[in-house]
Amino acid sequence: MNSTTKRILLVEDEKNIREAVTAYLEKEGYWVTAVEDGKDAIDEFGKHDFDTIILDLMLPKVSGEKVCKVIRDTSDVPIIMLTAKGEIEDRIIGLELGADDYLVKPFSPRELVARVRALLRRANSDREPLREAMEYGELTIDMSGHKVLVNGEEVDLTASEFKLLATLSRYPGRVYSRMELVEKVLGYDFEGYERTIDSHVKNLRAKLGDNPRDPKWLHTVHGVGYRFEDPSKGERG
Ligand code: CA
How many whole angstroms from 1 Cα to the centroid of ligand 1? Predict the structure, then answer.
C-alpha cells in the first residue's frame, strides 16, 4: 500500500453486501478493512488511521449508532451510514450522530464509490486548520476572513484563486504538481484540467503584482508545478 492509497473501514454484517462492496472498492484502488459487527469495528478503528468509514446502522453486538458515537468522540473521519429502506428516522439519527452522508439499501456500489470520493475530497479541503492572518513580506493572507492584502490594500480574488493561494502558502517551499492543485483547488479528480491551474496562477500573479520572471511568492517549478515562497524568509533552493 503506498502513502496515497486511501484506507476504508467497511462495517456490514450482511455477507453479500460486504463482499460486493469490498470487491468494488478494491477495484477502485482503495484499501479496505471489512468487519461484520460493531465490536470489531471499534477494535479496528483503534488500530489504524482510516480515511473513510462505511457503517451499517443495524449491526450485531454493538449498533452502528453506538459505533458512530465512539468514533466521533475522537475523530472527524468521514462516515457514510448504510440504512435499510424505510429507516427514515434512523437516517436522521445517523446524521445527528455526526455521520457525513448516508445511503439507503439497496444501493449500487458505483453510487457508494461516488459518495466516498466526494467525502474524501471534502475532507481534504475542509480540514485545514483555521489560521490567523499570515504575513509573507508585503502579502497578507487572512484565512478566517477570506481576505488577501498586498501592502495593506485588499485584492479581489475569485474563490478558486483564493483557494489556490491558501493551498500553496500553507507550506512555503513545498512543490505542488498541477494535478495535486487541480484536486485541492478545483475538486476534480481526473486528468485534463492541469492547464486550468496555469490560468489561475496567471490571474493570481497579475492581481498580486507578482512578476513571473522574478517572482516574490508564486514560483514556477518547470515540468512539475508551483511552489510558494515567503520572501521575508529568503528563498530556499
Ligand atoms: Ca445490518
Answer: 29
**CB under 5 Å of ion ligand 1: residues:** 13, 56, 58
Q: How far apart are CA 144 and CA 160, in angstroms?
A: 16
Q: What phi and psi, each to the nearest 5 degrees, are found at residue 114? A: -60, -40
The pTM for the full model equals 0.54
Cell of 24: 468494488
37, 66 Cβ separation under 8 angstroms: no
CA of 64 to the centre of ligand 1 (A): 9
Residues 6+ apart with CB under 8 A from 186: 160, 193, 196, 197
Ligand 1 center to 84 CA (angstroms): 8
Report the alpha-carbon angle 97-101-107, nearest 5.
125
For residue range 87-143, what is the model confidence (pLDDT) as tens digits?
556 556 666 667 777 788 888 888 899 889 888 877 766 555 555 788 899 999 988
Give the bridge partners for 153, in sequence order.
150
Residues in the chain: 237
With CA atoms as reference, report the closest residue to 1 among 22, 34, 29.
Answer: 29
